[in-house]
Structures are given as structure tokens and as C-alpha cells.
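Troubleshooting log. The previous run stalled partway through. Resubmitting the same two chains, unchanged.
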Amino acid sequence: MGLKEEKAPKSLENIMFGGLEERRKCTFPVKSRIRVLLAKELKKPERSGSLPSSSKGRYLFEERDSNSWDKIPKIDGVVAKSSKSPPSHKIVVNGKECINFSSFNFLGLLDNDRVKSAALASLRKYGVGTCGPRGFYGTFDVHLELEERLAKFMRTEEAIIYSYGFATIASAIPAYSKRGDIVFVDEAACFAIQKGLQASRSNIKYFRHNDMSDLERLLKEQELEDQKNPRKARVTRRFIVAEGVYMNTGDICPLPQLVELKYKYKVRIFLEESLSFGVLGEHGRGVTEHFGINIDDIDLISANMENALASIGGFCCGRSFVIDHQRLSGQGYCFSASLPPLLASAAIEGLNIMEETSEIFHTLKEKCQRIHKALQGVEGLKVVGENFSPAFHLQLEESSGCRVTDSKQLQDIVDHCMNRKIALTRARYLEKEEKNLPPPSIRVIVTVEQTDEELDMAASVIKQAATLILN
Amino acid sequence: MPRYRAGEAPGGHSSVHRIAMNGGCRNENGGLKNGYVRNGVCPELLHGGLYKRPFHEAFEETPMLVAVLTYMGYGILTLFGYLRDFLRAWKIEKCHNATEREEQKDFVPLYQDFENFYTRNLYMRIRDNWNRPVSSVPGERVDVLERFTDDYNWTFKFTGRVIKGVINMGSYNYLGFAKNSGFCADASAGVLQQYGGGVCSTRQEMGNLDKHEELECLVARFLGVEAAMTYGMGFATNSMNIPALAGKGCLILSDELNHASLVLGARLSGATIRIFKHNNMQSLEKLLRDAIVQGQPRTHRPWKKILILVEGIYSMEGSIVRLPEVIALKKKYKAYLYLDEAHSIGALGPNGRGVVDYFGLDPRDVDIMMGTFTKSFGGAGGYIGGTEILIDYLRKHSHSTAYATSMSPPVTEQIITSMKCIMGEDGTSFGRERVEQLAENTRYFRRRLTEMGFIIYGNSDSPVVPLMLYMPAKIGAFGREMLKRNIGVVVVGFPATPIIESRARFCVSAAHSREMLDEALNKISEVGDLLQLKYSRHHFVPLLDRPFDETTYEETED
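Second attempt completed without errors. Output:
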């Protein structure tokens, strides 16, 4: 047979010393055997334990093996411990009763007896689930009532409710903006907006956070582009998407300038008001009321009912011309089961309370300003967010440059406060998924239920924790 | 065409419908003369012995005359639509459409003009069949608010009257847990008093309640998997978790009739999506083989991951996924399987544990078990079950744990109690009886409808029963006539179905008594005669089904 034995090319050393390598193997076969055996053994992770610890360091284990050893806990940190009580004013975490500074229960409606009894009455009438989407026997009279009430409260023509807060803006954006359309978005936009934009497949342009000159630059660029191709420009819809109060920064958007730009460049505005609805303005109608802007100037306002209203779900409101389109095109509306009637009733009762006691918004604002003032000048921590925003962030003044260390330090502060009966939480993000990952922070949430003493106490505990941990 | 009168049960003909069960009576020569085998393949030929029970699914071919008339119907509707749009444009006919603000007239139009043509001219004519407002429990009987319109369905006004006791054939209340009294409602009322309605925080922050953990353990036990995770909305369970499971460089193989949430999730993931014919294992195998042979487009690198997306029961077809074959394929080609049991959980299987239980398979063979609580459990939300590693991964990477509010506590409690009831952990055999009752009701209802001569799609064990209407005018007529006779049905047309296959859909529930079903059946038969819906041709059933062809539809995300 034509088989030839293949010879490995000899190394330089081998040539020089005339086959020393082969001879060595013949002379000391035992040593090489042992070496091979040892290497084999070391590859098995379960065997490596028997080796002395000094030799362990020298052999690197495969990454996937080591991953399986140091398993990260399910939900890291303190929150992995579940609470056995409702996350209202007081919360029991790890068996310790704390004052809650971490749930978006701004108006304290979660534990409100009126809301609860309204929900209970609804439960006794309709049961729990709706067993169908809105189109197929899932529209209840309470849904229609809630939509009407929301529209009336916001002073718009129409409102539409979704059964999940996250899905509200994420469904609303792709209902209007399609492939080829252009959306101008603030780069600090929350994750739900990012997902909505992704689903819309539109052309997305980010402008710097709250930087109107940057937005205008982009709009001008687009205008020039349009002049080159006017036929295309006639069918390209343009939108600005902004948040009332930004989830990730606690800032308010400069709405008057946005409206100005809207008419100047003929762009529509979509506003996400989850944190400002039921918070800002004299009657809690959000940023439009705060700035005294005609609500019809905003094409679509979306908010969730999971924060101020302390229910579940979300809604969009605006003119019928805009909103009605979602009843057939909003995916989260058409294809999902409708909101459980008891939660709709809870939201209606929440609206009643908001309408009856509009001084509640003033109280909330005062409380926000109080803790803001108290937290100024904490060593090592800076307060990020407006002084009237009930949800704001505490960031490290000087970042170590490493996200993990920063988070660790902030978590230590959170733990320290937790031991002193102040429940805080770090703001959680999916770090790999966020478009512009905000720096690590502690989110502090003010509610009307917190007394002035509690606010002062929280501020002093945070101060104490910061000095203790950061210095 | 032989037709049967209302209520007449042609017992002798039912055998005609049993042709295509595997292991059952098939023609000797293996010829597929009947039209009852979808895809033209008998599963036993390919994967003999995979099925532990008869599997028969019927999709009778649309009669030619009906198809032609249906197309003509759409043609006439479209022509009239153009005519009326013309009249509206010249302000001869009053236009009821909401209009743009004066200040924004010079903006780029928000909608393309043609976009709403279908809505304006076709849907608007029969809009009264959808969104009917309900004012009671969505149980076996339901109270519907009466509405009327004086502007051809553009707006509705309430008369103030309530149509009481409409037999509900539309809600997904498969096991009859939608109730406002009884142990489930009592338990959730208690939890509502204790916890309130909302949560106001996310799972990762402060919204991780003991009730959620209890539910997750229970779901894992119910499904027979290592761990489970629950979410507040069924739609979002799909659309927010598939992106966590697949990404660029992954391939998603999706059934052509998958629900919008699966489609959205697949799109958001950024993976390449390829679509196989509905429940067609040849098509799936071909795609799998191609994917492995060819690898990624252009680079020809192997795919990082292949994920097959299927549903347990398809909500518009009433068909059950060929799970044993899918699992065999998935094992053969080392793909992952994502099973959406939105309609099948609770509604299928001797223990009510979904399609896996129905076929007697091992739940560990399905990598990702997803389902919703809206339907059988009378709650809201969704779950994902799987291995401990998978769920731990999802807890950290799922969009909804980090950004969406957690489940409402009273809803959670409703699911816990109803699930315990199905499992028999409440110490009664109540749940088991309901599961059996549902199976019995389903078989009875389907058999009677087929015997009456309607074309009924889907598997004989599926509680979703589509009845074919075909013509667009009959969609509206059927819905209205049935409501007149105090029966609430769901009618669907394009775009939820192929353009000529408009249908009515019944959802059988364990709460329906035999008398109710009989009443409904009699009325259906009556309306069927009125509208001439009994299309089925028992004797010469032609080879039906959409033949498998080589063209596959590919969609890539850019």
C-alpha cells in the first residue's frame, strides 16, 4: 500500500543535538507517563480537590467549570428576601419592619381602605380574571368607565387602557411609527420606550438628555435631508418621544421648548408620564399641567397606573383621532387579556380620591422638597433629580470607574439603612440591554404617607451611612 | 350536498370522520384518499408509535363554490369601499372619522390613507360583533349590555338594558374558574384585604412578595419542572422573555400561525426567523436540516442556537401541536423547544396539565414551558417553567423582573387556589371532575356540530372549536343572529384568519351543562340553516389541506 509514515518536522534543538528528545523519552518513560496522567486528572474538576492548595493556583480551570461553582444568587442582594406584607408605608423585609422608601406608591393608595373596598366589591361582582381579550367578551363596563374617567381627568377626548404598565408605551409607539419613520428620543428614555422603538423598526435618533439644542440640530439635519428628497419626506412620519419625569434620572423634560420645536419642525410628541401622572401639577395631571401647556398640543400621553394609582396596567390618552387607532393596532391591547375588573375598580376609586383631595399633590411636593434639602451636601453622594420629583437617585460623587465596586458600595449603604429601618433599593437595570446605561444609583421614593420626622430620619440615616461607608 | 336539518343527528355518518386517526382505521393501501390528514402525511408512517393516543385533526377543504363566492363578496365590498371613499372625499357622504387638529393639518399624515381602508369599509360594517360590553362574571352565562348605533357602527350608545343570561361560548373559561363566589374568590378577597390590589415595585426591587414565590413553587410542581417564574401579563411573557433566550446568531423556527406575542418576541430578539407550515413536521424538519447544513447566511457559521416556537392549542385553528414529533425532531437535531401553552394548560390532558400531559410525555423534554393564567385559571398573567438554570438565568435577564411591576396579589391568590384545586391538593376531586367534564363537553359539542354538517376545524379533543363561515357577510350575520338567540359567540375574519376562512369560534367550558350545550347547539343549527352554513360534504371529502411546498418564508431582522 502506498502509505508513508509521516514524520513530524524536527525542532531546531532536536537537529542540533541529534535526536536528544527521542532518547530522553526512552530513558525516562516514567516521568512523561506521570505527567500525562496528572494532566488528565487535573482536567476533571471533581478530582482537582484532592490536590494540595499550593498546586491548585497554577492550573487554570476551564471557565465553564468555574461558572458552575460560584453561582450567583437568584435575585442578588437584599431583595431576594421576599416581603410578607404589602409594600405600602411600612414594609417587612427580612423579618424587620422598615419605612418604605422604595415603592412607587406616591399617594399611598395601595393600602387605602376605600380603594380596597371598591376592589372587593368589584371582585364580588365580576370575579378575578376576564377570560378574554377586549374584543372577545373581555370588555367590562368598568373598563369603559375607567377609560371615560381617565379621559375626563386628563381633559382629553379619549383614553385607552392596557393590562400591563410596561406594555403600554411599548405597544403604543409601534402602532404609529413604522419602518422608515423617524423617531427622536431622549437618550435617557426608560426601557419600555426602548423596547417600543425596537418593535417599531423605525429610524431612531437619540439626542442628549434634555438637550434641546442637540434635538434642534438633529431636526435641522433632518430638514435638510427632507429638502433633498421631498417625495420621501411627505410620507415619513416624525415623532419625538420624551418622558415627563425621567425614570432613569429624575429630571423633568423641558416641555415648552419641545412644543415649540414640535410646531417649528412639524413633529409629533409622545410623552411617557408614568412618574409625573398623579404627581405634578395642581390636580396631578402631570407635566402638561405643571408647565401650563394645552394638553392637545401633545399628541399622545401614556402613563401607567402602577405608580400613583397603585393598581396594575397603563393607559394612553389624547385625541380620538390618535387614540382610537390603537384599538385595532395596539398589540398589547388587542392580543392580551383585559385588565382584571377589580384592578380597574381600584383605579377608578384612586381617581376619585385624586379628584377629591387635590391638596395631596401639594403635600407630596413639600415632602419631596424637604428630603431633597435634607440630602444636600451628603459626603460622597449626590442627589440626581428635580427637587419636586418623588422618585430621585443618589449617585456616587466620585465613581471608582468600576461598576461592580460602585454597586457594591451603594448596596452597603442600602443594607446599612435597611438595618436602621429605612427600606431603600438600588435602581436595577439590565446592564447589557440598556441603550445608555445610567450610572449605578440608589432610588429614593417619597410618598405622602411618610411623616416629616421619618423623612428627616431617612436623610440622617443615609448621611450617616454615606460617611461610614464612603470614607 | 347532503345536509342535515336542525337537531337531526346522523349517527351512521360519524365513522366517516374517523379516517385519519393514527393507529385507527386507515385505507389498506396507505392511500390518503380522505381529506382528513393534514399535510398529507400519516404520522404513523414516519414516527410510528410516537403517539400513545389517537390523534385526529380535521381540516375539510373549502368547497370551490364557497371559495369563489367569498372572493366575490370581498370584491364587491372593496368596490363599494372605493365608491364610498370617493363620496366621502367629495363630501357627498358624511364622514364619521375623527379628524386631525386644524393646527396640525400640515404635518405628515399620521396614517397612510390606505391603511384604514379595511377598517373603514369592511370592519366598520360589522363592528358591533366585537367589544361587546359585559357586566357580570364571564362565566357560563354572562350579562351583555345592549347597545345601538344610529350612524352605522361609528359610535355606539347604550340603551340602558342588559341582555341577561347570554350563554357564553366566547370566553376562555375552560375549567369554569371564573366565578365571583366560592373558595377561589374568597381566598383572593382575603389577600386583597391584606395586600391591596397593586404592588408598586418590580420583582428585583421591592415587589417580591411571598405570594409570588408560593405561586412559582406551585407552578413548578404543577408542570413537573424544576423551577418556574411568573409574570404579570401573558402577552408580555412571550414578548419580553424570548429576547432573553435568543439573540443575534440564533435561529428561531416559528409556526406560521403562532400568536402575535410570539412573533413580537422573536422579532425583538434580533434572531433570524424562519417560518414553517402550520403543524407540518416535514416543513419543520426541512428547515432544521437546512439550518444545520447551511449555517448562518453568508458566513456559513453554525447557528448559535436553534429555538422552535410552537403553541399547545392554536387558538384560531383549534389544532393541537404534534408534540411527540416535535420533540423527536428537536432531539434529533439538538434544537431547543419553546412551548406556549396559553390555551392548552388546564384544558388538555387527563390531569389538566396541558399538552405534555395529553400526550403522556416527559415535561423535561420541553426546554421552555410557557403558558398563561388568563384562561383556565381565571386569573391574569403568564409563567415560564424549565430547569433551575434556565429560570435563574431568566430571573436575572428577563425584562419584566427588572422593569415591570410584579403580579397583583389577589390575582396571584386566585391562581394558587384554582391550581391547587386542579391538582387535587385542596382535598376534593372537584378539579379532576372539571377536567373530565371539559373533555366530555368538548367531544360532545364537536361531534354534534360535525354531525349537523358544519365544517369544523381542529383536533377532536381541543376545546377551541372553530366553525367555518367563509363569507364576509356571514360573519356579521352569524354574530348578530346568535346574540338574538341569547348566545354569545366570537366571530373572526381577516386579518386574524386567512382572507377566505372567516369563522366563528366557540370555547367549550367545564361549566357548561349538557342542557346549555344542547340549547346552544340547537340555536347554532337553526342559524346555520338560516345562513346556509352547513357546507360539509360527508361523502366525497376531497384531499383537503394546504399541500406542503418547497417555498418557505424567511424573515430577517436588520
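Takeaways: Chain B touches chain A through 103 residues (CB under 8 Å). Chain B is about 35% helix and 15% strand.
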